[in-house]
């Protein structure tokens, strides 16, 4: 049986999925790693721990295939990776910094200064990336202005996946998808955008060579081949769960095995969810959240509320991401709802959250007027303000902990609905919603999203949409499927949530207030 291993390198963990050409998941594995964060807005990952996690997850899933006598069907390995990361590379390819992630808010002053300027507007129109602290463009401005010595020592400025790729093949290459989310890349000309580079003061040679998402390399470096054969990361630090070195007892990868560079995680999630045709929309809630519509060409929003990133040649995703998704629930249950107990006395994290969400589901839609603006980590779309703050509004004596938790769920959903409305105004109506991410384990939250949007929400059987999407790109690159449109037929709809018109009307009233609150409070933030 022929299959591709798709690897998704995320903000908190890396996942590997063995996906067949007839749409079956043969096995999956994962490895986690720590996030380095502080109150000053820092949010970083260790590049070598990320490499260890990739090696570990790949080794474990290969071990499962070998134990099932199926590894001979491996046709290639393909990648997905979180957008917007930045690593400064010095002489000899040595990382001078950790990887700044999309959640790093330190460049907010630089973003605020550029957003709304004529240069900022031109950069948005050419690159498709709204001006925000998340973008490598603003990260580079921050480095240049606050750590000029480090900036000057930078030989290359690259992303997480580019570092992994360089360690595997000794080449600095970046796929068009990841490049399209940097704020430095012209998404129509498919080249680095001169005005953006001049603004930050770097040369094209300090960036990787852009290549299509179907670009293939086969000649692993000898060190990389030994590393992958071992199945465990030999780099500094330890990847977390799952790295057992089960790569078929240390079996080497086949000579000439295609490695496909793949794309960014949001674009791969659309593909892996089956949202391939124009108007089909993927909604993801994991640590953060996003809603993205697949389109055939980039569409500029006059208000610069939505992004345009490349999925593959002839395919773009238009949409927006929120900084605040499942992390809001983690904050509420871990920091607020302690019930006077210590961490050691609480239920296991997931059990505790499921119990509390079940309690919150007994509260009527609309939370009896309680509304939450979930901007705990600033916000991306549609307000693009790293200084935005969270707010509970409408608190009354009838509200208890269940109302507050439900308001958190509704607030995250309202944020995505607001992004969805910006998307509709820019590119047209949403036809179908395909859900992915950790929130798909909650039927109550899925039904809430269906009711707020007034749209059917389809849940696929995919183990991980971004990793599945990477595998599909790999199939396309290796000639196993004829076009990306055919990839949608590999996705199985496991369940569909129908919207409730009466509840949609209830939510609309709270949403009307939600949309006004930010405008009235933003100056105080």
Provide a brief overview of the structure.
The chain has helices at 47-67, 108-114, 118-127, 136-146, 148-153, 160-169, 176-179, 194-200, 222-230, 265-273, 326-336, 349-360, 401-427, 443-453, 465-477, 501-521, and strands at residues 3-9, 13-20, 25-32, 36-37, 43-45, 74-81, 87-89, 99-100, 156-158, 173-175, 185-186, 191-192, 209-211, 216-217, 259-264, 280-285, 289-295, 307-312, 315-322, 371-373, 391-393, 432-436, 457-460, 493-497.
Binned strand content: 15-25%
Shape assignment: globular
Overall radius of gyration: 22 Å
- Measure the end-to-end span: 56 Å
**Can you count the helices?**
16
Structural class estimated from helices and strands: alpha+beta
Low-confidence stretches: 232-249, 340-347
Q: How much helicity do the residues have?
A: 25-40%
Q: How would a crystallographer describe the biggest sheet?
A: 7 strands, mixed
Spatial strand arrangement across the major sheet: 18-19-17-16-22-23-24
Mean pLDDT: 92
* Quantity of strands, as a count: 24
Describe this structure as you would to a colleague.
This protein is of the alpha+beta class and 525 residues long. The chain is 36% helix and 21% strand. The chain has a 7-stranded mixed β-sheet, with helices on both faces. A 6-stranded mixed β-sheet has the order 3-2-1-6-15-14. A hairpin with a 3-residue loop joins strand 16 and strand 17 (289-295). Helix 10 crosses helix 15 (465-477), helix 12 crosses helix 13 (401-427) and helix 13 crosses helix 14 (443-453). The radius of gyration is 22 Å and the shape is globular. The N and C termini lie far apart (56 Å). The model is unreliable at 232-249 and 340-347 (pLDDT under 50).
């Amino acid at each position: 049986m022929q299959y591709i291993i798709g690897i998704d390198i995320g903000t908190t963990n890396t996942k590997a999925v063995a996906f067949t050409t007839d749409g079956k998941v043969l096995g999956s594995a994962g490895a986690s790693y720590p996030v380095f964060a502080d109150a000053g807005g820092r949010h970083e990952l260790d590049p070598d721990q990320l490499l260890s996690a990739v090696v570990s997850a790949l080794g474990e899933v290969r071990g499962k295939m070998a134990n099932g006598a199926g590894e001979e069907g491996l046709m290639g390995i393909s990648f997905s990776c979180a957008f917007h990361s930045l690593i400064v590379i010095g002489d000899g390819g040595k990382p001078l910094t950790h990887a700044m992630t999309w959640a790093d808010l330190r460049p907010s002053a630089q973003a605020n200064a550029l957003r709304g300027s004529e240069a900022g507007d031109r950069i948005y129109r050419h690159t498709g990336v709204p001006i925000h602290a998340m973008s490598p463009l603003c990260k580079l401005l921050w480095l240049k202005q606050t750590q000029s010595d480090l900036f000057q020592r930078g030989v290359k400025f690259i992303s997480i996946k580019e570092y992994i790729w360089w360690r595997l093949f000794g080449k600095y290459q970046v796929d068009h998808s990841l490049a399209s989310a940097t704020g430095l890349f012209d998404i129509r000309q498919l080249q680095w955008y001169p005005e953006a580079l001049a603004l930050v003061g770097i040369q094209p040679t300090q960036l990787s060579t852009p290549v299509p998402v179907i670009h293939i390399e086969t000649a692993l470096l000898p060190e990389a081949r030994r590393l992958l054969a071992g199945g465990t990361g030999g780099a500094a630090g330890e990847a977390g769960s799952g790295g057992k070195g089960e790569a078929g007892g240390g079996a080497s990868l086949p000579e000439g095995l295609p490695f496909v560079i793949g794309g960014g995680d949001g674009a791969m999630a659309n593909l892996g969810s089956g949202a391939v045709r124009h108007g089909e929309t993927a909604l993801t809630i994991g640590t953060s959240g996003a809603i993205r519509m697949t389109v055939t060409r980039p569409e500029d929003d006059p208000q610069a509320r939505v992004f345009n990133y490349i999925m593959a040649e002839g395919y773009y995703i238009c949409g927006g991401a929120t900084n605040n998704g499942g992390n809001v629930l983690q904050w509420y249950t871990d920091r607020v709802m302690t019930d006077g107990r210590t961490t050691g006395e609480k239920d296991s994290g997931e059990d505790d959250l499921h119990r509390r969400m079940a309690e919150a589901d007994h509260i009527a839609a609309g939370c009896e007027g309680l509304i939450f603006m979930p901007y705990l980590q600033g916000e991306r779309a549609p307000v693009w303000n790293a200084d935005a703050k969270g707010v509970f509004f409408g608190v009354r004596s009838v509200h208890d902990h269940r109302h507050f938790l439900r308001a958190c769920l509704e607030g995250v959903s309202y944020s995505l609905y607001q992004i969805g409305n910006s998307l509709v105004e820019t590119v047209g109506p949403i036809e179908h919603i395909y859900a992915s991410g950790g929130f798909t384990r909650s039927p109550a939250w899925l039904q809430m999203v269906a009711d707020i949007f007034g749209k059917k929400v389809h849940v696929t059987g995919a183990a991980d949409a971004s990793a599945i999407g990477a595998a599909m790109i790999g199939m396309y690159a290796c000639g196993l499927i004829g076009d990306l449109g055919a990839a949608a037929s590999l996705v199985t709809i496991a369940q569909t949530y129908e919207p409730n018109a009466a509840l949609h009307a209830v939510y609309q009233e709270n949403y009307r207030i939600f949309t006004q609150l930010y405008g009235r409070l933003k100056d105080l933030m």
